[in-house]
Write a structure and sequence with these properties.
It comes from Maribacter hydrothermalis. This protein is of the alpha/beta class. 29% of the residues lie in helices and 31% in strands. Helix 1 crosses helix 6.
Length: 377
């Protein structure tokens, strides 16, 4: 079994990498805490357990650029020293940046950190891979920090109007795509250039390029069509599906449950469940009192639970956290809740009668590629 540790495992990329690797039963993850860089003993104990270290810890924002440079160089020095002191030689993957070719102290810290790790690999038995990473976007990115997508999604979903300062073209890679490349780089040198003895480099290209105004236009459409009218957008384009899944993670928790309009006449009632610009799969279930269904999550699928009869408790919990979100629905006022990706979810019949729930998901079920991972809420 391969052992992998991730410095910066609680950051944006680190968290996605950690949770994705946790789905692989052939990998043992070595937990990392930021405080390890303040304790030589704890850092050395961490590295000696790892076959592979993915070094993501870094600073990329501070009022004083010199602090950024000093911090990032120190983190590399500490990591090298821990490996050297333990006479342990893991495969170290290092997150560099396209900024390393530019004349700023952040880029300089990445370039010099890479050179230090090349020298470490050259003089020992370790292996080094530098990953040059473009702008990344995806769910759970920090708004108002260094991602225009995270900032736009957060502002639009919360009723604000973002401002375009420079309508340039932005090259982006979706977090799921980046994580897949990092995992491939752990075991394979495919696509890498050799840059030294035991050292390699993978220059990761953006998978999409859009003007800033195009990004904002799409996100504003999500607010109008999805949040205001409950209409799922066309999810056939990979980039737009990724952007929509990112947007959904910024929709406020109290947006749900969304009540349906119930059209009633002497014949009975009619309720429109979901309008979509794609097809997907519609289904329904009946559940006897006291029974809970689900307890699973998806990494790419968009899904809606609609309660039309009976009483239900729908629960969600983001993977890697303890906070549980509870939604109480009653078929007397039909309503729905949409499931964000990376949130395990379930539905329980909390009434005394049969619960009837309708489901829509954007992909027909494929047992060979189900994208369904079972974890209790």
């Amino acid at each position: 079994m391969k052992t992998i540790g991730i410095t910066g495992q609680n950051g944006f990329v680190g968290n996605h990498l950690f949770t994705t690797l946790s789905l692989d039963e052939n990998i043992k993850l070595i937990p990392f805490k930021r405080s390890y860089f303040e304790s030589t003993a704890e850092l050395e104990n961490f590295v000696k357990q790892c076959d592979t270290v993915v070094h993501l810890s870094a600073m990329n924002r501070h009022d004083d650029p010199q602090v950024i440079y000093d911090t990032n160089i120190k983190l590399v020095d500490q990591l090298i020293a821990a490996c050297t002191n333990q006479e342990h030689y893991p495969h170290i993957l290092f997150s560099s940046s396209t900024q390393e070719s530019k004349d700023n102290l952040y880029g300089k810290s990445k370039k010099e950190g890479k050179l230090k790790l090349i020298e470490w690999a050259k003089n020992g038995n370790g292996k080094f891979t530098s990953l040059t990473i473009p702008n990344v976007f995806g769910p759970f990115g920090k708004p108002n920090y260094n991602s225009v997508v995270a900032t736009f999604c957060h502002k639009v979903a919360n009723g604000e109007e973002p401002e375009i300062i420079n309508d340039g073209e932005v090259g982006l890679i979706y977090i799921n795509e980046l994580v897949a490349l990092i995992i491939e780089s752990i075991t394979s040198d495919k696509g890498k250039n050799k840059i030294g003895n035991n050292s390699f480099e993978l220059e990761i290209a953006p998978t999409s390029k859009n003007k800033v105004s195009k990004l904002l236009s799409l996100i504003l459409e999500y607010r109008k069509n999805y949040m205001e009218n409950g209409i799922f957008p066309n999810l056939e384009d990979d980039f737009e599906k990724a952007l929509f899944n990112t947007f959904r993670c910024y929709v406020p928790v109290n947006h749900y449950p969304v009540k349906y309009t119930k059209h009633t006449d002497p014949r009975g009632s009619f309720v429109e469940i979901a309008k979509t610009q794609t097809s997907g799969q519609f289904s329904f279930s009946t559940t006897v009192p006291g029974i809970t269904r689900g307890n699973h999550f998806h990494t790419r699928k968009a899904e809606r639970f609609a309660v039309i009869s009976g009483k239900a408790l729908i629960q969600l919990r983001k993977i890697g956290t303890d906070e549980v979100i509870d939604y109480y629905l009653d078929g007397k006022e039909p309503a729905y809740v949409d499931m964000p990706i990376w949130y395990t979810h379930n539905i329980k019949n909390i009434g005394e009668e049969e619960l009837i729930t309708l489901f829509w998901i954007n992909e027909p079920f494929d047992p060979e590629n189900a994208d369904t991972y079972f974890v209790n809420v």
